[in-house]
Amino acid sequence: MKNKISSVVESSYRAFYGKLFSALFSQFGANYVSEIEDAIQNSFYKSLKSWKPNQVPTNKENWLFIVARNEVLNQIKKDSRQQSQSDFKSKVETENPKEDLRLKTILFLSKSKKASSKVKVIFVLKNIFGLHIKEISECTLLSQDAIYKSINRAKKDFQQSTKDENFDLTFEQIADQEIKIVEEILYAVFNIGFDSFNEKTNSIINEDLCLEALSLSKILSDTFQRVSTKNLLALFCFHLARIPAKIKNDKIVSFFEQDKTNWDYDFIKLGFHYMEKPEKLNKYYLEAVIASKHITASKNDIEHWNEIIKLYQLLISVSNSPITKLNLCYCLSKAHRIEEAKELLEIVENELPDEHIYLSLVKANMLSNKESYESEKIIKQVLKNIKQKIRREYILENMSTSF
């Protein structure tokens, strides 16, 4: 029964962390970020001790919020900053329950002139979406030490740059650049959910995280009516459509082997509804077009791959990401343009960490025909680094030949 309670608390952590942080941040502000983080952690710790089997509070979020809020107030009181407490209480009374405080908090933090875009993204991934440092490291390609340093720097930057700002922003106060940062954050969150490396689950998908990113993107789109946000929504919908077919009998099913009758065609229809060609090409539109081409292709022949290659080359011209280049490497190899793929792979190897999993898998796949020993050596190293059972089984069954 103790394990059952631990499981309830663990699932609550991801579901409520961001909401708790946003609610407390709206009341206490950037000066108390460290106190808020400590208070939320303590509230989850207390829930482990207090919640009994069959006696878990009906409103777990409210229970955690009250405990965390009292914890922050106690910490402030100890620090002799008690004079502010009356102000905090008044803010509770004026809170609008219909607002999504997470999106509001992200927009507020995005306005900071002090913190860099990268620091903002890292801070929000941890505090609004409750992602672990390891997960952030995997999606940003930054070391875990660098992530810790960025978060600590973000706290100081936000304290300095937002001390005179009113949390209750009007939408007219939000600039295009700030919306772009929010789009980038939601894009990162979705990708982490869609390709999860969580070792505790027998899936590579965190559907809740994907749907959170979709939900907040929908609010952002409805509010600001930006074409880039619509294309972000289109991209999410095309990916979400394939989730029902990605896992079968607790095994990963590659895109090309998925049963298309299991795809969610309502999401595909919605993806085309949102997709809109922008005046100036951006990565969300191009990625949505690529996803739609894969979904609607009747066959995956050379002609199909050459069409996808052209789109990836356009994508690199607007977003020179090493991951995009790596995807292009894969497409070139599928189109039998091996020499071009190898040339590009050498460039990507200088831009990604040595043991980047997808880099290793693409390289091993490209070497599998003529340099099988080297290919298997790479696969062995990948298997050493992957702890997630479902991925290990997929690689062993589909990529290795002598294990």
TrEMBL record:
Annotated GO biological process: DNA-templated transcription initiation
Boundaries of every DUF6596 domain copy: 180-277
Pfam family, one: DUF6596
Highest taxon in the source lineage: Bacteria
GO terms of molecular function: DNA-binding transcription factor activity
Matches recorded under InterPro entries: DUF6596, RNA_pol_sigma_r2
Protein name: DUF6596 domain-containing protein
Species classification: Bacteria, Pseudomonadati, Bacteroidota, Cytophagia, Cytophagales
